[in-house]
Design a protein that fits this description.
- The chain is α+β, with helices and mostly antiparallel strands.
- The chain has 2 domains: 5-123, Rossmann fold, CATH 3.40.50.2300; 133-346, no CATH class.
- It has helices at 5-18, 37-49, 85-92, 107-114, 126-131, 136-151, 243-253, 290-294; strands at residues 26-31, 53-58, 96-99, 118-121, 154-159, 164-168, 174-177, 187-189, 194-197, 205-210, 215-216, 221-222, 227-232, 235-241, 263-269, 299-303, 319-323, 326-330, 333-337, 340-341.
- Helix 1 (5-18) packs across helix 2 (37-49).
- 47% of the residues are buried.
């Protein structure tokens, strides 16, 4: 069911208060022609109601002639901020940016964050946002997981379907998402509850099996048959299977970019209000898929860019693939067993 403007306003006020928004701060609502108008309008009202000085910056969509889909997660990192010095200056001068356009993986986003601006991405349907309102306990779980993954040297992932994957850590920082841009220079996404990290370059090794029913993003569908992905020295070297595997191969080949095959962030979901089933209940183009990325106990692995971690691999091809029923361990200590978070009180 739809979320009323009144309820959504209460939700936005609560989230912005948790983001430490103060009266007099400069807030920019970043929109495009295809932004969700309820999100943009209610965010603007909530920020104004809390005493912020609010501006709205609207930028025309880009990449429509390059992408294979209108879904912005299917072609990442290239934004209308490129070459737009005036718009970039506006965002850098802001204390907080509410992004309904999706700047993720762009060098411009990193430039804005480096200046201390905090940024909150908000592009999921309002019903999903309200169901997964950020909570203090979510942040605590994510930071506890981040402490584990930040101290770890090695991750090992197995599954009954055949996954046997390892990677090493230390080169790149930890990624935390708990739905709040509550510190200077922090980016986050409402809703989101997981922790992850980019492996050391060349360290990822082994086999990842996408089982029937696992989720393929940005394709936004459930796998209809197994796919076996072989990784050697940090790169995807083979995608084996039938139609599903061919679909993945053809999509990645369309970018004509060898960087698309690099392993990117790996981690696990921690959100007990996220559900594996939600992807099948919405028009795929209406959501980014944060239930899929966040549901408790998933093993979320990705390919492509590493700019968010400070790297220079800015390929526009990015896959996020959350798997069920995997066992994830860090230096031999279990984080999930057969898709269940360990210990159970962590969700």
């Amino acid at each position: 069911m739809a979320i009323s403007d009144a309820d959504f306003l209460k939700g936005w006020r609560q989230v912005l208060e948790m983001c430490n928004l103060k009266a007099g701060e400069q807030v920019t609502i970043l929109t495009s022609d295809d932004s969700n108008p309820q999100i943009a309008n209610i965010a603007k009202l909530a920020a104004s109601d809390l005493g912020a000085v609010v501006s709205e910056l609207n930028l025309a969509p880009v990449n429509g002639e390059k992408a294979l889909s209108p879904d912005k997660s299917g072609y990442v990192g290239k934004t209308p901020l490129e070459g737009n010095a005036a718009a970039l200056a506006c965002l850098k001068a802001s204390d907080m940016v509410i992004d309904t356009l999706q700047l993720l993986f762009s060098k411009e986003q990193e430039d804005v964050l480096k200046g201390g601006t905090r940024m909150l991405l908000a592009v999921e349907p309002p019903e999903i946002m309200m169901r997964m309102m950020p909570r203090p306990e979510d942040k605590q779980r994510v930071l506890a997981a981040a402490e584990k993954i930040g101290a770890a040297k090695k991750m090992h992932v197995t599954s009954a379907a055949g996954t046997d994957f390892t990677c090493e850590f230390g080169q790149y920082p930890v990624l935390t998402q708990y739905g709040l841009a509550d510190e200077p220079g922090r980016w986050d996404h409402w809703p989101s509850t997981f922790s992850a990290r980019w492996p050391n370059e060349g360290s990822s090794q082994g086999t990842i099996v996408i089982d029937e029913g696992d989720i393929l993003l940005p394709f936004k569908h459930y796998a209809r048959e197994p796919v076996t992905v072989t990784i050697e020295k940090g790169m995807i070297v083979d995608i084996a299977g039938r139609t599903e595997a061919e679909f993945m191969r053809k999509f990645m080949e369309s970018f004509n970019d060898p960087r698309a095959y690099a392993m990117a962030h790996v981690g696990w979901g921690l959100e007990n209000r996220a559900h594996w089933t939600v992807l099948g209940l919405y028009d795929p183009q209406s959501q980014l898929g944060m239930d899929a990325r966040s549901f408790a106990g998933n093993f979320l692995w990705s390919s492509g860019p590493n700019t968010e971690a400070g790297g220079n691999r800015d390929t526009p091809c990015h896959l996020d693939i959350p798997l069920r029923n995997c066992s994830v361990s860090l230096d031999g200590e279990p984080m999930t067993i057969d898709g269940k978070v360990i210990p159970a009180d962590q969700v």
